[in-house]
Amino acid sequence: MWTHRHLLGIEDLSVADIDAILSRAEKWHAHSRAPERKKASVLAGRTVVNLFFEASTRTRTSFEVAAQRLGADVVNVSPALSSVTKGETFLDTAKNIEAMRTDVMVVRHASSGAPAFLAKRLAHARVVNAGDGAHEHPTQALLDAFMMKQRKGKLDGLVVAICGDIAHSRVARSNALLLGKKGAEVRLCAPRTLMPPHAEGLGATVRVVPRLDVAVDGADVVMMLRVQHERLAGAMMSTTREYGRTFGLNAAVLARAKPDAIVMHPGPMNRGVELDTRIADGDRSVILEQVEAGVAVRMAVLDLLFTTGTPAQPS
Ligand code: NCD
């Protein structure tokens, strides 16, 4: 049974919850591809608010497309144009938006825990975490899992290398938590200064592998991450060129992965830094398919939040 009112992190989800989202996403993925696609009505009359305090292209647009495709109305609030610039607090801003009888608050914020803070204090709105600091980005991990399952048929037993700025990456954290719960082998790879101290605590099957070629060796999935310069306090890495030479994915390194390995990236990517541009555009890359999967997964999440009490495996 799906019982959650909010989606705050992978940490709160059971394996059955994850399976419920992934299986419902399959339905919405097919629906989105149908030549005669009809607007669904499961969220008709609902208002979804995108409250984004950090930059976003994919996630914000994807939530907007997902909500509209389900029949909801969508409002986008950006702090640069709001009364936050006049000193209004985050909570007051959210409470005022909720007072308009809006139904879902999709929140992105630079502070870890900001969506959970709202979920505790709002009266009726559902809260969805669209990325909070270096903490979690649950819908990204869910769409990545959807993609891996589509291409590899399963998650259990897959070897997944996640490489880049692990320390600042909510994407890496949520992915490691999800893949750990689903029994995949996760290899986290980063320069020493960009690896958090307790990374292996994210799951029983999560390991730290300091060298890129070793992390990629025999992998089914290679996920590359951007260096989050905006979260780097001081000089934690040398030059971008040197980073690319040591931790960038090129053809020689990728050749060590399984012959049918796929390459993933949550975006935004820095071409030529964390991955060679020919790999980004090559036949192993599923980067744009991840974006497509993002809409289906967000449709599934919004759908489930309004159908509390439904079975984990919808027919
Ligand atoms: C990521 C994010 O914002 O956490 N992007 C995304 O949502 N797809 C990763 C990043 O900014 O590098």
Describe this structure in words.
This protein has eleven helices and nine strands. By secondary structure, it is α/β, with parallel strands linked by helices. The chain is globular, with a radius of gyration of 19 Å. The structure holds N-carbamoyl-L-aspartate. N-carbamoyl-L-aspartate (NCD) is lined by residues 58-59, 131, 137, 140, 170-171, 226, 228, 266-267.
- Strands side by side in the biggest sheet: 7-6-5-8-9
Order of helical and strand elements: HEHEHEHEHEHEEHEHHEHH
Enumerate the distinct ligands: N-carbamoyl-L-aspartate
What is the distance, rounded to the nearest whole angstrom, between the alpha carbons of the first and last residues?
13 Å
- Classification by helices and strands: alpha/beta
Oligomer: single chain
Supply Rg: 19 Å
Residue windows where pLDDT falls under 50 for at least 5 positions: 311-315
How is the secondary structure organized here?
Elements lengths: L14 H19 L13 E6 L5 H12 L3 E5 L12 H9 L5 E6 L4 H8 L4 E7 L5 H15 L6 E5 L6 H12 L3 E5 L16 E3 L3 H5 L4 E4 L15 H8 L3 H4 L7 E3 L12 H4 L6 H19 L10
Keywords:
315 residues; alpha/beta; five-stranded parallel β-sheet; four-stranded parallel β-sheet; 11 helices; 9 strands; 14% strand; disordered C terminus; binds N-carbamoyl-L-aspartate
